[in-house]
Amino acid sequence: MPSSSFSKKSNGALAPSDPTRVAAVLIELAASGDMPQRLVVGADAWGEITAKLDSQRAEYEAWKALSHSTGFA
User: Fold this and answer.
1) Which of 14, 25, 37, 55 is the most exposed place for a label (fewest CB within 10 A)?
2) Residue 8 per-residue DSSP state
3) pTM of the full structure
4) CA-to-CA distance for 6 and 33, rounded, in angstroms?
5) Domain shared by 32 and 59, yes or no
6) How far apart are CA 1 and CA 20, in angstroms?
7) How does pLDDT run across 4-56, given as a tens digit for each residue?
8) What highest taxon heads this organism's lineage (predicted)?
9) Residue 34, Cα to own-chain centre: how many angstroms?
């Protein structure tokens, strides 16, 4: 993707989401009355967040037996 298709973030980094499209999505969601509690905007953000969630899930699973061992018998 050419750099001209990126917007600048406030810190000067490039943001790969089109601000016009983001605004349109937010307006559409607000008008629908069906707002998600959290909205991941952009494929790059989706990749980062789902990778973090996968990592957290693996950590939770590693300690599942110990976590379950604390219940009343």
Assistant:
1) 37
2) E
3) 0.65
4) 30
5) no
6) 17
7) 455 566 666 666 888 999 999 999 999 999 999 999 999 989 999 999 999 99
8) Bacteria
9) 18
